[in-house]
Specification:
2 copies of one chain form a homodimer. Chain A has helices at about 30-40, 45-65, 70-85, 90-105, 115-145, 165-175, 195-205, 215-225, 250-260, 290, 335-340; strands at about 5-10, 10-15, 25-30, 150, 180-185, 210, 230, 235, 240-245, 260-265, 270, 310-315, 320-325, 325-330. By secondary structure, the first copy, chain A, is α/β, with parallel strands linked by helices. A 7-stranded mixed beta sheet of chain A has the order 6-5-4-7-10-13-14, sandwiched between helices. In chain A, strands 11-8-9-12 form a 4-stranded mixed beta sheet, covered by helices on one side. Chain A has a 3-stranded antiparallel beta sheet with strand order 1-2-3, covered by helices on one side. The longest helix of chain A has 30 residues, at about 115-145. Chains A and B meet through helix 7, strand 6, helix 8 and helix 9 of A and helix 7, strand 6, helix 8 and helix 9 of B.
């Protein structure tokens, strides 16, 4: 199993995903600021994975603290700093809140036990994610007919999570169950997580795939033979509207036209009930350069400008179901989401 | 005006579009086989431009012929060879047929007058294209409200035509008429004609633009403020179904959902009445490498496979109008197309 983030004797080992698939470089991080920077520059990415990385980063923050006051200050600083690293994926804030609750629960305990208590909580978050992903995989696989071909976007595999995957976890589970024939991967511009990361993961496991440019999704579904579109999520609003990698909404439009089931695949930690609808989800805009210079090589003439939102919002009406570790949620999501979270 | 193809004293001067915008390299071609190769490798591309290049190539074929028999053999060989260079754009076959008619008309004329007669016909094809494009630009501009923003895909400008452009010709005309506020350019993977070529053309003329990844089209139209989607065409079937750059159909789905007018912009030479519907248009599949290695730099792990159709088909029902030099054709196209061609 690919584990992009792991704790090793007081350090966080992190696979630098910006260099894949050409190079497998593991970073050894000892300060929470380094983790925040890794999140910002997408060395670790994927909503669940950045939540897990942030949880471990909060352990790093207090690991070498000197005295209670120092620990408290560092923990608070790190919680604030990490929350500012990226704005859209809610799992980041969710993981920080879980760690803050653990911190509060440790109030009054001797300082030398606190880091280990926090570490235990981070490990629980991590282990629960993997366990949850596997349940998600089973629920999703059950929805696919035998001999299925699916279309997916971005990387939602082991690299994007604790180690198994959400949408790509369904691909894994369907392959194990003998239900999968072909995974079509949108290359996922601008950062090519489809061709760089999904392909890398699937190739390691011998799961058959084909890469297509994002614009070819329409032609693929028009050709027929694709049984489902599977996408991850960075934040799901209370009404089911879903923010995910830019291009996801475009897939939703195409899937709706061809009446191909469109499944959002995510742990319930991705649901943000404080947000009513997709219009309120903050969408990160990233550097023009990501668009203008693919893989760092300039395509557009100098001085060109880009429009580069990292995410888009797919409205609930285009989503056939949300596949979570607590089961398959169906519309109306205003009812099924609260039931799942209860 | 950008003229990607021009005749100069017995040679064809051709701007190598694979190197733009970093390098403006002009090729000097003296043999039709070189032109066929330039078409195949996309040094010249865009349906009208490859038609024009092929017409000049047929002049090259007989330019240095020795005797009537030699000229006849070379012309026939070139006509066959050029027609095999690319399968989808019908303007290629249309231009070759026009040149064949001119060749037949010259039967019995002294050999030393034939190359010049053919050259005159190629120049007419070229000049008519530019003239037609300008009329197209006017018709299209008239459809746009003042202060329009438009979305387009691939390059359909001077580089893709005789020198003015189809969809980008409408952008030019609308800008001149003070109707255009912003041109949004899909970068157009795999070969990035949007960011490489459209941006290069618009920057030269100071027309404001923003580049986006192809998948962001949905998010852009959802945000609002885009008044039309303008696309070119490589072949239009008798019923209006239109083959164009991969990604066009995906735009059509998104435009339909947002009720944004979706205009196909092309000269009538792009209409192929011999083909009833889009399903019969041959679609070129190109090398996997174009997808797997953007700008030649590998993204996917070695051994990955791609699905890389160069075009897709947008069904007539998604097309609000076809803008031609003979006016704006509206549905039902089974009626308006024959009327325009009459």
């Amino acid at each position: 199993m690919i584990q992009p983030v792991s704790w090793l004797e007081g350090t966080l080992e992190l696979l630098d995903q910006t260099l894949l698939p050409q190079r497998e470089l593991w970073l050894t991080l000892t300060r929470w600021e380094e983790v925040a920077e890794a999140i910002r520059r997408l060395a670790v990415r994927g909503a669940p994975a950045i939540g897990i990385a942030a949880a471990y980063a909060l352990v790093l923050a207090v690991w070498t603290a000197e005295g209670e006051e120092d620990a408290g200050r560092k923990f608070a600083e790190a919680a604030t700093g990490l929350a500012e690293a990226r704005p859209t994926a809610v799992n980041l804030f969710w993981a920080i809140r879980r760690m803050e609750r653990e911190w509060s629960a440790q109030a009054g305990q001797p300082l030398d036990t606190i880091p280990n208590a926090l570490l235990a909580e981070a490990r629980r978050i991590h282990a629960e994610d993997i366990e949850g992903n596997k349940r998600i995989g089973g629920h999703g696989s059950d929805l696919l007919p035998m001999g299925s071909s699916i279309l997916t976007i971005c990387n939602t595999g082991g690299l994007a999570t604790g180690g198994y995957g959400t949408a790509l976890g369904v691909v894994r589970a369907a392959w194990s169950a003998g239900r999968l024939e072909m995974a079509y991967l949108c290359e996922t511009r601008p950062l090519l997580q489809g061709s760089r990361l999904n392909a890398w993961e699937l190739m390691k496991e011998g799961i058959p795939f084909r890469i297509l440019v994002d614009g070819a999704a329409g032609a693929l579904l028009a050709r027929g033979g694709v049984h489902a579109v599977l996408v991850g999520a960075d934040r799901i609003a209370g009404n089911g509207d879903t923010a995910n990698k830019i291009g996801t909404y475009t897939l939703g439009c195409v899937a709706a036209r061809h009446e191909v089931p469109f499944y959002v695949v995510a742990p319930v930690s991705t649901i943000d009930r404080e947000i009513e609808g997709g219009a309120d989800i903050p969408i990160e805009e990233r550097a023009h350069e990501e668009v203008l210079a693919p893989l760092g090589r300039p395509a557009a003439p100098e001085g060109s400008e880009a429009w580069n939102p990292a995410f888009d919002v797919t409205p609930a009406e285009l989503i056939s179901a949300i596949i979570t570790e607590r089961g398959v949620l169906r519309p109306p999501y205003e009812r099924s989401i609260p039931a799942a979270l209860a």
